[in-house]
């Protein structure tokens, strides 16, 4: 992917985080002191002797799995004294079990710790992750990555603020959440990929009228509804307003456009546009069902692309979400993949750092392209799959227009439950849009007061 394709995204991330940092100031704290980076580090993996490195990841889907398996294979070939003990879990399962693992007496060495207040900031506050500053001096990650991306994986002392402070992780892939569509089904319906939200609404009605599932959707974990809400929110609200809201520098979740986004989800649910009983379907089952023919459209992240391309071939397409009106720029959430972090109790932090350096190297970016993923940094290889070419074009479009907004679950440590739970009830028809957004604001206010 050409370098210019990521500049806007990086600039957007940097601008978001700078604005957030300026809006907030650390307060006094009695938090547990954060873990300290080692004063001296070694980059000579061979001198470490025989090492078993335990790595926890969420790279369980086809393309992601192929990517990490290939990188692990190459790392072990380069350093035959290291054996990788890989433990893989789905994103949701990893989030549920990681804190317990990190607080135990025998935690993994390397983990994928999600960005935001709910995960990385909490782990930093509890002293569970190792600051990577000393290793950055040895490997030069901040020189390799633009500031906007390293900032996303940075946290201040005590977990007070995200987007600044010490570096706690390095990411391999880029991410955007967009709209997958079944080209064959659209052709049978006689409609083109929608360019505006009005056209999208018309396409949903047409699909429902032909007894198709308009939107493939599974929402057991609550987070899927939050991502879908965020995409719709980006379509009805100003991107700067969304950024300010997520990062705590202005606005309210009960503002008109935000309530309007929730109402759109409620209307879609009432009209039967979602998969039946969506709240009982797992998130990871959604692309599987879509590939089997359940659904005309699928809102989802680029992490699903390798599997969909493998199963659907040229029948699947990808586009940025529709624009508010024809010709207008669009925005959607995204950034970079879960960062690789070193646990504070790792018995082999030097080897862990060498591993992270290897799996985020220029060679790794090429492997990302080869396995159908979207690398965080420019790769020397270009994608050859049609779907991946569309995703690369979408990444470029969003970057050019500064159209990347943050994941809204960053907003508070408890937002997935506090907002995701009411969104489930909204989709089930048990809560109104106003009630759901009030619940979001109540949680948001409570967190802002604690900071």
UniProtKB/TrEMBL annotation:
Residues 1-21 form the signal peptide. This is Extracellular solute-binding protein. InterPro entries: Bact_solute-bd_prot1, SBP. Keywords: Signal. It holds the Pfam family SBP_bac_1. It comes from the Bacteria.
């Amino acid at each position: 992917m050409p370098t210019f394709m990521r500049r806007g995204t990086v600039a957007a991330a940097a601008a978001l985080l700078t604005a957030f940092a300026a809006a907030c100031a650390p307060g006094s704290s009695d938090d547990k002191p954060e873990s300290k980076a080692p004063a001296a580090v070694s980059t000579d993996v061979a001198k470490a002797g025989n090492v078993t490195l335990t790595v926890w990841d969420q790279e369980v889907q086809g393309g992601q799995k192929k990517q990490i398996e290939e990188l692990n294979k190459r790392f072990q070939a380069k350093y035959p004294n290291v054996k990788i003990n890989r433990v893989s879990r789905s994103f949701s399962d990893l989030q549920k079990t990681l804190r317990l693992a990190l607080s135990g007496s025998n935690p993994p060495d390397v983990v994928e710790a999600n960005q935001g207040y709910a995960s990385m900031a909490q782990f930093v506050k509890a002293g569970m992750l190792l600051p990577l500053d000393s290793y950055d001096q040895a490997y030069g990650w901040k020189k390799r990555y633009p500031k906007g991306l390293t900032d996303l994986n940075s946290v201040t002392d005590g977990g007070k603020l995200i987007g600044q402070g010490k570096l706690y992780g390095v990411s391999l892939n880029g991410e955007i959440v967009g709209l997958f569509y079944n080209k064959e089904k659209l052709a049978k319906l006689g409609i083109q990929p929608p360019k505006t939200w009005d056209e999208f609404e018309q396409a949903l009605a047409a699909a429902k009228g032909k007894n198709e599932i308009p939107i493939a959707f599974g929402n057991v974990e609550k987070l899927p509804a939050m991502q879908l809400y965020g995409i719709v929110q980006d379509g009805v609200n100003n991107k700067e307003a969304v950024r300010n809201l997520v990062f705590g520098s202005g606005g309210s979740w009960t503002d008109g456009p935000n309530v309007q986004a929730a109402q759109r989800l409620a209307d879609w649910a009432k009209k039967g546009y979602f998969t039946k009983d969506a709240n009982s379907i797992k998130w990871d089952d959604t692309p599987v069902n879509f590939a089997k023919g359940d659904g005309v459209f699928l809102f989802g992240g680029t992490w699903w692309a390798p599997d969909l391309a493998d199963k659907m071939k040229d029948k699947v397409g990808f586009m940025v979400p529709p624009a508010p009106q024809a010709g207008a720029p669009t925005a959607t959430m995204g950034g970079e993949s879960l960062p690789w972090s070193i646990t504070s109790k790792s018995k082999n932090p030097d080897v862990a750092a060498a591993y992270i350096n290897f799996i985020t190297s220029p060679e790794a970016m090429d492997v990302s392209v080869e396995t159908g993923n979207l690398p965080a940094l420019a790769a020397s290889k270009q994608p050859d799959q049609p779907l991946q070419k569309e995703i690369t074009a979408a990444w470029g479009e969003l970057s050019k227009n500064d159209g990347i907004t943050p994941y809204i679950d960053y907003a508070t440590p408890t937002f997935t439950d506090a907002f995701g739970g009411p969104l489930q009830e909204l989709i089930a028809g048990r809560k109104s849009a106003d009630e759901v957004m009030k619940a979001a604001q109540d949680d948001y206010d409570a967190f802002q007061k604690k900071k």
